[in-house]
Amino acid sequence: MPGFDIDLQFAEPLPREQNGRGTPAGTQPAVEDASLAIPPRRFQSTRKVEHVSAASFQEDVLDLDAPVLVDFYADWCGPCRKLAPALEQLARDNPAAKVVKVNIDKDPQLAAAYDVTSIPKLMVFRDGEVVAEHRGMADAATLRRLLAN
User: Tell me, what CATH number does 70's domain have?
Assistant: First the structure.
């Protein structure tokens, strides 16, 4: 069977009959009733999870009056890595709160000060005080509950 060589680079599209409004002839134009319009997407904050150290902990966590969720983690911790996307989503969905991470390998004195003996450990601070704690993995609902305390 012989092969066919077709050069599509120079092929022109077939003409489409239009009704003058940009919709193909014979179809109904889009409904212009505002009540039927697709609602805009919910606003999402661009806030991201921040990494803090012992040097910045006072300013970034304790001095704030807004709720701050602190994730004590380590790079080698599998559950900590699994938790990261949920924390990022929590930060985007809650612009009035702050979500931060503390690497216990880089700041062991900070981990010791807050009795971090297993990770991940989540703590919520409000006005410099711990108002909620959670050890281990947490789903999105648990994270929201922690932040609501």
Answer: 3.40.30.10
The DSSP call for residue 135 is E
- Asked if 56 contacts 40 with a C-beta cutoff of 8 angstroms, the reply is no
Residues identified as active-site: 77, 80
Could you tell me the two tokens for 109?
Answer: 């004195």
pTM of the shown model: 0.68
pLDDT digit string (tens) for 114-144?
999 999 999 999 999 999 999 999 999 999 9
96 in a domain, yes or no? Answer: yes
Close Cβ partners of 59 (under 8 Å, ≥ 6 residues apart): none
**Which residues make Cβ contacts (< 8 Å) with residue 104, sequence separation at least 6?**
72, 73, 74, 110, 111, 116, 119
